[in-house]
Amino acid sequence: MRKQIAAANWKMNLTYKQGEQLLDDILEERIALADHQQVIFAVPFPYLIMTSSELAGEANYFAAAQNCYHKKSGAFTGEVSAEMLESVGIKYCVVGHSERREYFSETNAMLAEKLDLCLAAGIKPIFCCGEPLTIREADQHNNFVETQLRESLFHLSAQQLGDVVIAYEPIWAIGTGKTATTEQAQEIHAHIRSVIAAKYGKKAADGISILYGGSVKAGNAKELFSCPDVDGGLVGGASLVAADFTKIIRALS
Ligand code: PGA
To answer: I need a surface site. Which of 72, 110, 145, 157 has the fewest CB within 10 A?
Structure first.
């Protein structure tokens, strides 16, 4: 059974103390996860070690980085490598979030390099894809996302792909309160899975978790996660409120 994942993306929010308190409040709920369920917290770099130590001993709870650099090491002041993340015990890293693509000019080719570096370091990438509103309105979203996958992911071996989580995040739904309908989410998730099946075979496609992101809330998570090809969510705003994020965790199939 493929993994069902509730992933929090804190983005550039919360102080250290607030982050610690949020984790405490969520863990206090003692939500027992089934073997196929995972909760991941993508937190700012300075909070990674605190988050890992908060989660130590909690089965199926993980800390994740929100980004890493697309070069292995060297004179890149201010950047953080996949290898550095691995060296402090991090197991997951978000790659290619639309905010990184938009504000930091990350290209599909750079993201391909990041995926390679994460996988070489033993870090599972949470690879984000998704279209802007104009592409959705022109009914080109399937092609757009397919290109993102082809240019960043399709050089990987089937074995490497087994360590990748995909997050489909339509840009028009991120932070806007405008969620994709379950029909829209299911349709494109099924398309992503079929594109992967065509390249890597049905077994690989059936095994890969595809998360939905874009205004996932406590009130809509259950419906979204009940779609057969939606394997959980990548959650921004609602992950900053303990009561909301715990409901989202409980909505996992
Ligand atoms: P949102 O963000 O839940 O606030 O829409 C999702 C994301 O950007 O990962």
So the answer is: 157
